[in-house]
Design brief:
By secondary structure, this protein is an alpha/beta fold. 42% of the residues lie in helices and 15% in strands. The mean pLDDT is 91.
Length: 239
């Protein structure tokens, strides 16, 4: 039975993702002159995530704190990272944002092509020139009133604890005078099977949006303070 259910889940996820790509591709062509920021394209992921999560009997996701999102504000969004499933779960916020995503994700058929169509930000790890390009691109989006989302741990946490944060997102927030919006994801570590394609573990994921952390009065010397403050607020919610 596990084999049949798992096969069905993967077939549904694949079919939904292929459908998402073709819908985004068609809308990109039709709306090209009117949707330069690809907000309508991005919003197609909202129905996709509802369907992906809804059709998976092993996943239950609880979302809280949405009242902390002001749809009129632009944020540097920071979220911890436990699983590839976090990508789907993050769309439950219904926020407009651009991911900073590693280059390898853009190479995955259909998923990567959707990232490209939505104009998300590509990061080549280990290449200094790529890092500088990422921050220029992220700053341009923020100045265009589009939020940018970072996983400041740099990679998925391999333990139950949250890794230390890298500086980039916090440095950018101070530079651009944009508030930090912390988002905590918990319980998703086993959402994607490791070493097998079989779903066996029931996952109760939680996404919690915390109140913003203001940066307008901070200076570059406050970088460590800001990073540590946000890390402390977020780690309290990791079980």
């Amino acid at each position: 039975m596990t084999i049949i259910i798992s096969a069905g889940i993967w077939i549904v996820i694949t079919a939904l993702t292929i459908s998402l790509f073709f819908i985004e591709a068609i809308l990109t062509i039709i709306l090209f002159p009117f949707d330069r920021q690809r907000k309508i394209i991005h919003s197609q992921c909202f129905w996709w995530t509802d369907a992906v999560i809804g059709f998976n009997p092993y996943w239950h996701v609880e979302v809280s704190g949405l009242e902390n999102i002001d749809r009129q504000k632009t944020y540097v969004v920071v979220a911890n990272h436990q699983s590839l499933a976090d990508i789907a779960i993050m769309y439950k916020t219904r926020m407009q944002f651009k991911w900073v995503a590693k280059e390898s994700l853009f190479k995955i058929p259909f998923i990567g092509w959707c990232l490209f169509l939505s104009k998300h930000i590509r990061l080549s790890r280990g290449k200094f020139g790529s890092i500088k390009k990422v921050y220029r691109e992220a700053a341009n989006w923020l100045r265009s009133d589009v939020s940018v989302l970072f996983f400041p741990e740099g990679t998925r946490s391999r333990t139950d604890k949250m890794n230390e944060f890298q500086n980039g997102a916090f440095k950018l927030a101070i530079q651009e005078k944009k508030p930090i919006l912390p988002i905590v994801i918990d319980g998703t570590r086993e959402a994607i099977p490791k070493g097998t394609w079989l779903f066996k573990t029931k996952v109760n994921g939680k996404l919690t949006v915390l109140p913003l952390v203001e940066t307008k009065d901070l200076q570059p010397d406050d970088l460590a303070f800001l990073k540590e403050t946000v890390h402390r607020k977020m780690k309290c919610l990791i079980t």
